[in-house]
Every structure is written in C-alpha cells, then in structure tokens.
Amino acid sequence: MFKRARIAAKSAARRSTFARRVLAALLVASLLPAAASSVEARDPLLAYGARIVGDDARTRIVIDFDREPRFSVHYIANPERIVVDLPATAFGFPAKDLAARGLFKDIRYGKMDEESARIVLTTAGPVKLALAKVQADETGNGHRLVLDAEMIDKKAFAELVKTQSWSDRTEAAQTTSAIPAPQKAAPGDFVIAVDAGHGGIDTGAIGVDTKTEEKQVTLAFAKALTERLNKEPGIKAFLTREDDEFLSLSQRVLIARQNHAGLFISLHADTLKQKDIRGATVYTISDKASDKLAADLAERENLSDQIAGKETVAEPPEVADILLDLTRRETQAFSISLAESVLNSFKDQVGTINNPHRHAGFRVLQAPDVPSILLEIGFLSNAEDEKLLLDEAWRGKIAGLLTDAVKRYRAAVMANGG
Asked: What is the pLDDT of residue 178?
C-alpha cells in the first residue's frame, strides 16, 4: 500500500511539474513581441523541458514536448555538427538546462522560418547518434525526444556525411516568390534594403546587463529605420527579415539584388572583450581588413551560417575573385561614399569609436551591384551603449540621422548622373 502511495505521489508530482512548466512557457510566450504572433497562430510545438547528462565518450539529451514532434537528423563536417530539424517550435525551457557538456561544445536552438525550427549540436570531435527517437511520457502528458550521442572515428563520421540525403528547407527562401518586396515601389523610386542582422537560431551578441539578444535590437532598429525612410518621397525601404527568422548571408544579399535595391544597410550591435569601447562604426567591404578589430568582427559575422547548422559551400576561387573584383570596381566607391555620409550625419550627434570607418571581408556586403554598408550601432558589451540601444527615443534619433545620410547620398549620386 505504501509503495502504491509513493508511486501515486510521484505521478502527481510529475503532472504538477508538467503543468507548471507549460504555464511558465505560455506566460513567456505571451510576453514575446507581436512579431511572433504569426508563428504562434500556427500552433507550434512547445518544448517545455530539457536535460543533458554524460561525458566525453557518451552524452544523452532529452527534450520534453507538449506533443509528439516530427524530426530529422543530419551531419555536417568542418566543423563536426549534428543538426536536428523540427517543425515550428517554441522553446520554453531555461537555456542553462541545455548548456553544452560532454561530447558537445556548443548547443544552439531556435526558429529557422515560419514552418521550422532547428537544434544545432557542435561536437568536440566526430560523433554519431546511436539513438534518436521520440517516446511518450509515462504520465501520458506529451512526448520526449531522446538523443544518445557517442564518439566515433573520423572515417566513420565522414561516411555518415557522405551517405546521408537531405535538403535544407531554409534555402527555399531563395526563390523570388518568397522574397519580401518593397510596397508600392514606383518606377524611379530609390529602393533600400534594410537588413536586421542575425535572427532565429542565430541570436547574435548578448547584452552585458539585460542579456538582450542582438537579433532583437537589430530588428527594432531596422523597423524604425524602414518606417522613417518610407516617409521620404521617392524612397522605398524594405526589411530583409520582418520577424525572428533566420536568413543565411547569401539569402540577405539575394533579397537585396532581386528587389533591385540601390542600397543595402545591415544593422548590428556586437560585443567586445574590451568593455570600455563604445560607439558606432561603419564597415565597408575589402579583401584586406583595415585592422584586427575589423578582421575579428568579419570573422564572427561570417560564421552566422555555421551557427545555424548550414553546410558551407565553397565557391570556386575564380568566382570569388570575380565577385570581389566587381564589388571593388562597380560599387566600392559608392559604399565608401555612403559610409562617409553616415558618419557626417553622426558627427556631434552620435558617439563613434576611433577611426569609425573600417573595412573587412564581410560576406553580407558582397552584392556586386548594390552599394552596401554594415553599421555597428553600438556595443552590447558596454553598459552605456546597451542602455541607448534599448531606448526607443534613441532608435528614432538614429533612424532620422541615417535617413538624412541616405538623402545626401542619393542627391550626390543623382547629381553625378547616377
């Protein structure tokens, strides 16, 4: 009798814990920005709990869902990663519950697009999933995804990569029909692509005090800038992403080009180890970095696709050379002109770092026919910058100054017959 009582008590405790987790996740979801409402309307899965155990030989991950998830698993090399694709999913558990350990040195998860989410497990070496299955919770409340990883040799991992068959659904966005277009763009309108850096599974930097994610900061600034630009006659601006969605670097470039953008402005708010550095920086593309800070930033930003678990498809060297040469000859001068116009607008209005116009090999700036800049609005690693980055009035001020810069740039181009 006492044994049955203990079992009943444990069962009741599990149901109570499940209920609390679901309620907590729903409360968190209710506080998310309105931009997420379209995803919620699709009734995504709820991942309400997670845990990870094991060592550097074998590691188990368990994720609790409110209902049975469909999933697929793929392997990517250089570096070795395991990618778990899911339908649209709201992740409601604390990040610390799935902190990397054992065979995994980094774990990322989040939204890819309106229909899908992804978990990317970056491993410390060659690894395979000896077990990957969904089990019904013994209480009858939801299901759990169980992933058992074990170390293997490099040859076995290479064979896994070689023999698998998969298509990355996020590449579907690289079709013209899926690309957002500026509203009511008329012949002769000056079209501007405003790119909110990061998004979805790629959170970007994290605020030093508030822990705000860079992807939220950049989207807020991008929306403010787009709204302000569209108040100007003859200017039509549009967002490369309108919500918390992952876009590859090549997709961002393609969106700008296929919408015949005359400018591409990518917004970021990075972090640095030196917490005292603050202020804005404008970057343009170059095959050689202007300094170590620019080189390091470009390297981090160019890892966006890797963070999201995308295969790296290397372009033939001759193609890369042609692209870079075209960028230099046809658009680099215009990009530099735009950067100078932005810094002139910021003068005595917005703090900038020393030598605020820098350059490096940013992949997101490689459109051969679209003048492009990457603007670091400030640094989330600096407490004072972070306060400004989260201030709505400050966003409005930056949007106004950038609009002035774009207007001066456009006037100069038109005066020169552009």
From this structure: 44
